[in-house]
Amino acid sequence: MSTTRRQFVQSTGLGVLPASAALSQSAPRSPNSRVQFATIGIGGMGFGDTGHALSTPGTQLMAVCDVYDGRLERAKELHGKDLFTTRDYREILNRKDIDAVIVATPDHLHARISIDAMEAGKDVYVEKPMVQDWRDGHKMVAAAQRTKRIVQVGSQRVSSVIYKKAQELLKAGAIGELNSVDAWWDRNSAIGAWQYSIPTDALPATVDWDRFLAHAPKRPFEPIRLFRWRNYQDYGTGVAGDLFVHLFSGMHFITGAIGPERIFASGGLRFWNDGRDVPDVMLGLYDYPKTAAHPEFNLALRVNFVNGAGETSGFRFVGSEGVMTVGGGVSVVKRPPEREPGHTVGTFSKATQEAFMREYLKKYPPRAATTAGMQPTAEQHFQAERGYSDHRDHFANFFEAVRTRKPVVEDAVFGLRAAAPALLSNESYFTGKILEWDPVKMQVKG
Q1: How sure is the predictor about 371, in pLDDT bands with cuts at 50, 70 and 90?
Q2: Main-chain dihedrals φ then ψ at residue 95, nearest 5 degrees
Q3: Could you tell me if 155 and 250 are in contact, meaning their C-beta atoms sit under 8 angstroms apart?
Q4: CA–CA separation, 348 vs 414, rounded Å?
Q5: Could you read off the pLDDT of 101-160 as tens digits, one per residue?
Q6: Maximum Cα–Cα distance for the chain, whole Å?
Q7: How many domains are contained in the chain?
Q8: CB-CB contact of 155 with 45 (8 Å)
């Protein structure tokens, strides 16, 4: 544990390319040139990310890395027997024919591997949350700035045409001035609650257990911790890191917000008492200060793994003149202003009631009911085309940036500002404290 990274690299004889090599590779490429990439961590998200990456024109998979041999074998079955596979991600970083990497490992490995990849001259697509500890987010930002590498964080909703439409409607004043946002993600199934299958051949011979643990606490071989790593604080980030971060990133994109200043989370382990040490229900409350992009507003988040009612997620943006709901599409319901406030004079004396009503009727004279006086209900609904995938668009944005060196939609700074409040929600939950956050400096206050 006390060995430095340099000593570790030297002791293995592998090494990585110096930062100067990264700088030499930062020139724009031809828009038609092929981008050669590798996937590090070829589990569920890794396989999915690889498929979406390959659906982007002009890309080629060169190598995959995983600590479980069965996934390496499966990658060859899907992508060809000549595909280079390894348990050691540094073998991938040392290859000069690889331009970019997808980092889809357990959360506790995101920062280390992403930074090593940038220092080796590779552009990085890293799954959300960008880091397991918000402090490591600053190291990621610094590495991206120092090496001039592209970093895209994998919260694909920021590339969605649905969320872009919601952003446009909010900016155009479709619901007036924003007051509050409610967001939820109910994922009520065994697979949704991370009860992933454990392969029958998960044995010490087929799993590089020590490489999986890395800097996490040492413990004997226990395959459930590898294949259901999201259930454990040592490797994952619980419902906040897995799902809150999606809600933060999507909401930040729509509103232009950069983060809350007060964070409080509650919840508990209500149903999935399977040995996990993270909650299966979490509620979060967040105070967003006024900025040039938006007024002061409050955010409420909810994630629920419990009641078996299927999976739904979405947002409800409440404004002074209407409500916008964002999920599989965007809906806006305009709320016409009241013509008169009404009154509550029943507890007044008769004389006071009469005096009050004389003045009230002067200000709000009664009108005959006519069809012309009826208020229309203004509703708008917007849907993406059938088969649309924001995941594909997110990778298209990444590979375009790899070729052109233009900014991505979710760089390391955006990724940290989405991840930090999610990760601090865990801290609030476990400590029972309200946390103060500086969204500009991206630091815990005090």
Answers
A1: low
A2: -85, 125
A3: yes
A4: 56
A5: 999 999 999 999 999 999 999 999 999 999 999 999 999 999 999 999 999 999 999 999
A6: 95
A7: 2
A8: no
Question: What tokens does 430 get?
Answer: 């476990």
Q: Does 333 lie in the same domain as 305?
A: yes
Which residue pairs from 217-222 have beta carbons closer than 8 angstroms and sit at least 24 positions apart in sequence?
Answer: none
Q: CATH number of the domain that 268 lies in?
A: 3.30.360.10
Q: Which two tokens stand for residue 20?
A: 């100067």
Residue 368 lies in a domain: no
> Residue 358: inside a domain, yes or no?
no
Angle at 68 between CA 66 and CA 73, to 5 degrees: 85
Describe the strand order of the beta sheet including 59-65 as a list of residue ranges: 84-86, 59-65, 35-40, 100-103, 123-127, 151-154
Q: What gap in Å lies between CA 284 and CA 290, rounded to an integer?
A: 19
Domain assignment of residue 169, yes or no: yes
The range of the structural domain enclosing residue 34 comes to 5-158+395-404
Residue in this structure with the two tokens 């013509």, named with its chain if needed: 339
Taking the C-alpha atoms of residue 223 and residue 220, their distance in angstroms, rounded to an integer, is 10
Are 152 and 209 members of one domain?
no
Separation between Cα atoms, residue 149 and residue 143, nearest integer Å: 8
Alpha-carbon 249 to chain mean position = 5
Predicted confidence (pLDDT) per residue in 4-34, tens digit: 333 333 333 334 433 333 334 555 665 568 9
Smallest CA-to-CA distance from 37 within 402, 394, 397, 393 is with 402
* Residue 383: C-alpha distances to residues 265, 319, 325, 335 (Å): 33, 21, 12, 21
Greater model confidence, 191 or 373: 191
Q: What is the pLDDT of residue 24?
A: 41
Separation CA 435–CA 261 (nearest Å): 8
Sign of the C-alpha dihedral computed for residues 199, 202, 208 and 214 taken in this order: positive
